[in-house]
Amino acid sequence: MNTLDVRSQLKDSVPVAGFGPHGSYGLQDSLRTGFTSIKNELIPSHSLELSEKNFQVNQDKMNMSTLRNIQGIHAPLKLKMELKAATQIQRLPFLPSSHLALDTLRGSDETIGFDDILNDPNQSEVMGEPHMMVEYKLVQRLRWRDTPFPISMQMLISCPQMFTLHTTCRE
Amino acid sequence: MATLTVSRAPLGGFDFGNCKRNAVLERETNTAGCSLPSARKTGTTICGIVFKDGVVLGADTRATEGMVVADKNCSKIHYISPNIYCCGAGTAADTEMTTQIISSNLELHSLSTGRLPRVATANRMLKQMLFRYQGYIGAALVLGGVDCNGPHLYSIYPHGSTDKLPYVTMGSGSLAAMAVFEDRYKPDLEEEEAKRLVRDAIAAGIFNDLGSGSNIDLCVITKGKVDYIRPHDEANKKGIRTGDYKYKAGTTGVLSKVVTRLDLELVNEAVLTMDTS
Fold first, then answer.
1. Is the Cβ pair A25, B10 closer than 8 Å?
2. Which single residue of A80, A105, B22, B38 has CA 20 to 30 Å from B63?
């Protein structure tokens, strides 16, 4: 149930834009995205864009709060813990993961929606830049705001116990 | 091909990346005086009725694209499950995809529960999906079926509201069809009477609404049996030509005949083999 207005959805949710204009070499791509303007990047281009981006997050919030009210704090706590453990079972960020455990926990292995039919990530024609994506993941995980960016791979190799990046194979 | 610098894995589902470009294009074409092609709609008459043993669903078979008939015999009664069928009005692609998705979900659900699916389940799934997309999916549906609790009939609007009623009509011809229903509906009709009533309602829609036409399809659902009658009635038959502009051979009398040979010289003859590998 989407009763939040646009501004509050913008506030505490996944950001819409990536690192500025999308195109090769970071320059503007007039053919695909038109002329650039900051307003275009901050405000979504379709009224459904924000609500679709945050749909799963909002559904989970709603379900967890209902569960907490009916069954007490332990039920959502345990479920959230299992979900968090399952989200960590994936391959390197730029490779497609099957999310099998996550799907089973969520029950989405028994449902089909538009996100399975349209824009299937396994059939995406573009690949993320491997170095950029792994670094982004590392910075997110470690939350080191004052680390010089980018972190060199030497650090990664020399002290592996500090960087706990799960690289388990696809299950 | 140069890679995009993305920081997050791509998600499935709808992609709103072209919305701004589409808005700009639409504005440009409007200032230039022309207009973009419109989506194919099923300007339609669909209706359903609950009778003594089950449900009768009816639909016309015309699909329009603006002012042109795109499909003279399209099928508007979609399969959802062996005991549930759904008529769709509105944007043709939206009704097709929505009913197919819900049909797949219902099949998975019934495999998981091990029971025949209920009409209320299909109704709930449809209304939650349509509400999620806030009416942008233009699918107005009439859902009917027979399950363990008896026959049920629902009408579902594009924004996600539903009504559970004994007789419903949807589409551009819905007012004409509803007029027939309001006049002649009685509870606990027999099967033949119900079929005749639905046929008359759809015919009223076909003859009084430009968006509906061609044939009448019926689907009779009872406990354990489904009768998909396509076409039940051809209300708009294409006329047979009464005259012909072609002259029969021998109409013009031949007075004299002169034959002139053309002597052509064979200059070159070449054979090119076709590559059939």
1. no
2. B22
B45 catalytic residue (yes or no): no
pLDDT digits (tens, 9 = 90+) for B201-223: 999 999 999 888 889 999 999 99
Residue B92 to chain A, least CA–CA distance (Å): 17
Torsion of CA A121, A123, A125, A128, to 10 degrees: 40
CA distances from B190 to B55, B184, B255 (A): 11, 13, 73
Chain B interface, mutation test: which of A112, A118, A134, A139, most B Cβ atoms within 10 Å? A112
- Give A69 to chain B, closest Cα distance, Å: 23
B-facing residues of A in 131-150 (CB < 8 A) are: 132-133, 136
Structure-block tokens of residue A149:
């960016």
Instruction: For B211-223, give the DSSP string.
Output: T--SEEEEEEEET
Asked if A112 has any chain B CB less than 8 Å from its own CB, the reply is: yes
| pLDDT tens profile B97-146 | 999 999 999 999 999 999 999 999 999 999 999 999 999 999 999 999 99
CA distance A100 to A89: 9
Chain B residues with CB under 8 Å of A47 CB are 134
Q: Which residues of A55-67 are buried (b: 16+ CB within 10 A; e: fewer)?
A: beebeeeeebeeb
Contacts of A117 (CB under 8 A, 6+ apart): B12, B97, B101
Peptide bond before B231: cis, by omega within 30 degrees of 0?
yes
- ipTM greater than 0.85, yes or no? no
**B170 forms bridges with which residues in the sheet?**
B46
With 60 as the cut, is the pLDDT of residue A18 above it?
A: no
Q: Does B148 touch chain A (CB under 8 A)?
A: no
When CB atoms are compared, the residue of B5, B13, B24 closest to A52 is: B13
Which strand (E) or helix (H) includes residue B154?
strand B150-156
Q: Give the range among A147-156, B8-17, B48-57, B167-176 with minimum mean pLDDT.
A: A147-156
Q: What does the pLDDT look like over A52-89, one tens digit per residue?
A: 888 988 999 999 999 999 999 999 999 999 999 998 88
**Residue B118 to residue B103: CA distance in whole angstroms:** 12
